[in-house]
Structure formats: C-alpha cells, structure tokens
Amino acid sequence: MTQELSIVQLLLNASWVVQAVVLLLVVVSIISWAAIFRKVFALKRVNAHNEDFEREFWSGANLNDLYAAAAQSARHGGPLERIFASGMREYQKLRERHITDNGTLLDGARRAMRASFQRELDVMEANLSFLGTVGSVAPYVGLFGTVWGIMHAFTGLAALAQVTLASVAPGIAEALVATAIGLFAAIPAVVAYNRFAHDIDRAASRMETFMEEFSNILQRNLGNQSASGH
Questions:
Q1: Domain MotA/TolQ/ExbB proton channel: where (predicted)?
Q2: What whole-number distance in Å separates Cα of residue 19 and Cα of residue 17?
Q3: Helix, strand, or coil here: 70?
Q4: Could you tell me the CA-to-CA distances from 155 to 15, 208, 228 in Å, in that order?
Q5: How many other C-beta atoms lie within 10 A of the C-beta of residue 62?
Q6: d(CA 127, CA 167)
Q7: Confidence of residue 6 (pLDDT cuts 50, 70, 90)
Q8: Angle in degrees, CA 163, 168, 173, rounded to 5
C-alpha cells in the first residue's frame, strides 16, 4: 500500500507533460482491455456458432431446409451460416432466372460466398488494428514521458548548489513511471493481438474449407441433375 501511495505522490509532483502522458496511457490501457474482453467473447461466439452449424450441415440435413433456417436466423447465426445462406441465395436466384449452365451457377454461388466471407472476416478483425497500434506505440509514448521527466528533473537540479541522490531520485522515479505504464498498456495488447490474429486465421481457414466443400456438394448435385435430365 505504501508503494502505491508513493507512486501516486510521484505522479502528483510530476510535470504536467508526464501527467498527461500517464493519463493518456491509462485511458488507452482501459480501452484496450475493454476491446480485448469484447473480442474474447465475440470469437467464442463465432466458434460456437460455426461448430453448431457444421454439425447440423454434416448431419445430412436437406440444403433447402438449412437455407430456410439460416435465412430466418441470419442476424443471430454464425459466419458459416451466413456464408452458406449467401451461396444458396445466389444459387437459387440464378436457377429462378432459368440459368442452366453449371459453371455460371457455381461461379455465382462462389462469388456470393466469397463476398460474405470477406464481410465476416472484416467483422472478426475489428479493433485488431487498434490493439496492434497500442502494442507498438504505447512504449514509445511512455518513453517520451520518461525522457521529458528526466529533462525536467535535471533542469530543476541546476539551481541546487549540491546535488545528492536524494534530490535526483524523485525526479528520475516519476519519469520512469511513464515507461512502466507504457509497458503495462503495450504488453497485454501485443499478447492479445497475436492470439486473436492466430484465432482469426484458424476461423478463416475453417470458413474457406467449408466454402470449398459446399461448392463441391453443389457441383455434385448439378452433375446428378444433368445426368438425370439426360
């Protein structure tokens, strides 16, 4: 408790530049922690929704039934469900326009799924760049506060006739607090950024695999329909 009070006292006695830097870093740290918690829960929901939909998709359910269910729960479903719905929607629209060319039907469904995939990826990557920026910039902001604080401390020592460690230490200590808080803001942001980037890459790979598998299913269905038509 004494250490915490001494740090607070050091900050209260610091120059206004150091105080502004510390305040900025504390605010940024709070925002980054809020973004981290939101992203953790968001990615957990994404994975849970994707697993539920894949389980239902590979259970042998009818594609039209799956599409009807996905269309109804578009807002509350997961990325895979929305990607599937986009592909089926475009596929059915082209069929309703009496387009019979298999390549055109498949290309339309793939383009729709690819566009939906990109939208889902953009949503998952939201705030990720902010965490990366905090992780890379916060230490330098803290270092700026430290350098300024040390300059301010040595400027104040110029008026003293005798300089001792007791007269130097407070100014140096209050300056170093800025660097410590900069690292406190940066380290969690860097760790979270790397973890989230890894999780998003895995989710993206999973969605791309699903798109390829679903395209193969559509291609087989079209092949069977063409064979039965002949």
A1: 79-208
A2: 5
A3: helix
A4: 12, 61, 90
A5: 8
A6: 44
A7: low
A8: 175
pLDDT reading at 4 higher than 50: no
Phi/psi for 128 (5° steps) reads -70, -40
For residue 82, give the nearest of 105, 113, 111 by alpha carbon.
Answer: 113
Q: Do residues 107 and 90 make contact, with C-beta atoms less than 8 angstroms apart?
A: no
CB 134 within 8 A of CB 144: no
Structure tokens belonging to residue 194: 């790397």
Q: Compute CA distances 116 → 71, 204, 211, whole Å.
A: 14, 12, 11
Tokens of 89: 């929607």
CA-based end-to-end distance of the chain: 85
Q: Is the pLDDT of residue 165 over 80?
A: no
Question: Cα(43)–Cα(200) distance, rounded to whole angstroms?
Answer: 8
Q: What is the pTM of this model?
A: 0.80
Element (H, E) at 125: none
Domain ranges of the chain: 10-224
Contact by Cβ (8 Å): 105, 10: no
Pair 84, 110: CB distance under 8 Å? no
Phi, psi dihedrals of residue 147, rounded to the nearest 5°: -60, -45
Which positions ≥6 away from 44 have C-beta within 8 Å? Answer: none
Q: Using CA atoms, how far apart are residues 138 and 160, in angstroms rounded to an integer?
A: 34
Tell me if 15 sits within 8 A of 152, measured CB to CB: yes
